[in-house]
Amino acid sequence: MMFELILLAPVVQVETLSDALDALDALSVSVEDADAHTPAEQALFGEPGMPPPKAGWERSRIVALFATEALARDAATLLQAQDFFAGCHVVAIQAVPEQDWVRLTQSQFTPVEITPEFWIVPTWHEPPAQARQVIRLDPGLAFGTGTHPTTRMCLRWIAARGTSGQSLGRVLDYGCGSGILAIGAAKFGAVAIDAVDIDEAAVESTRANAQANHVQLQTGLPDKAVGRYQTVLANILATPLRVLAPLLCAHVQPGGNLVLAGILERQADELKAAYLPYCQLQVQDEQEGWILMTAQF
Ligand SMILES: C[S@@+](CC[C@H](N)C(=O)[O-])C[C@H]1O[C@@H](n2cnc3c(N)ncnc32)[C@H](O)[C@@H]1O
């Protein structure tokens, strides 16, 4: 049985308290917004390229995990005697029931249905009986486990194209993350696939996932994208997609398709306008407030 010490602290004290808890043998320290799920909740992240709305929460809840109750109590007593603890409070010291953490984490990632025949399946699960196409993928550092609606819509587009007898041809996956779209394209008959990302970790992850799925991809940084492609897929976000408009459109061959995701419903018009010099984007799909936009060249 482990014990957690729960503290409330103003944002200016969080770093000092976290360092002190580390020094007092806390096994882990996590910090969350004490006002989460209330009207006072604050977002900490902005869109990429935009500054975050705030550097920290007004009131933070700090949870430190200790191996024994005595260690948790000693840490609380020591902290309460420090000057920097002014304005902070000990909320509770409580037992944490034993968990099988690996099993708990794994149970949160179950197979994801893209279509009744096409599934994303973690390696610790058997594929569902009706699955005809399967991507094996475990959660990792790079974005793209199939659980996000933007990824699912792109995969659904790929599957629809692949099963309708229309060739995906040469494919570019721009902003490949885990490589899930590129791997999906390979499963649905794409002939030559380039998967690129500005993040080296994503490139590495794509390489490993392609190997695990026995598919051939060329992967690398964005300068690996060369020439024109029948299919260009980019699931990024509206702001970078606007900036990338000329570059992405220059990679689509005549008669080819551009498929964009990472766009919110209310951003449809600004994306249409940004791409108008090159093509006519249409809303092709919608899931949970996100849209998929496509254009034929
Ligand atoms: C939302 S993830 C999508 C991952 C995957 N393609 C999917 O559909 O799940 C966006 C990826 O785009 C990459 N990215 C962001 N800006 C980029 C840019 N300007 N050029 C290339 N890649 C970019 C990020 O590093 C990230 O891996």
Task: Explain how this protein is built.
The protein has 297 residues and is of the alpha/beta class. It has two domains: 3-98, Alpha-Beta Plaits, CATH 3.30.70; 140-296, Vaccinia Virus protein VP39 (Rossmann fold, 3-Layer(aba) Sandwich), CATH 3.40.50. It has nine helices and 14 strands. The protein has helices at 14-23, 69-80, 101-107, 149-163, 180-187, 200-212, 238-243, 245-250, 268-275, and strands at residues 2-10, 28-33, 59-66, 89-96, 112-115, 118-121, 133-136, 170-174, 192-196, 218-220, 229-235, 252-264, 282-287, 290-296. Strand 5 and strand 6 (118-121) form a beta hairpin. Helix 4 runs parallel beside helix 5 (180-187). The structure holds S-adenosylmethionine.
Which helices and strands appear, and what pairs or packs with what?
Layout: E1 2-10, H1 14-23, E2 28-33, E3 59-66, H2 69-80, E4 89-96, H3 101-107, E5 112-115, E6 118-121, E7 133-136, H4 149-163, E8 170-174, H5 180-187, E9 192-196, H6 200-212, E10 218-220, E11 229-235, H7 238-243, H8 245-250, E12 252-264, H9 268-275, E13 282-287, E14 290-296
The structure holds S-adenosylmethionine (SAM).
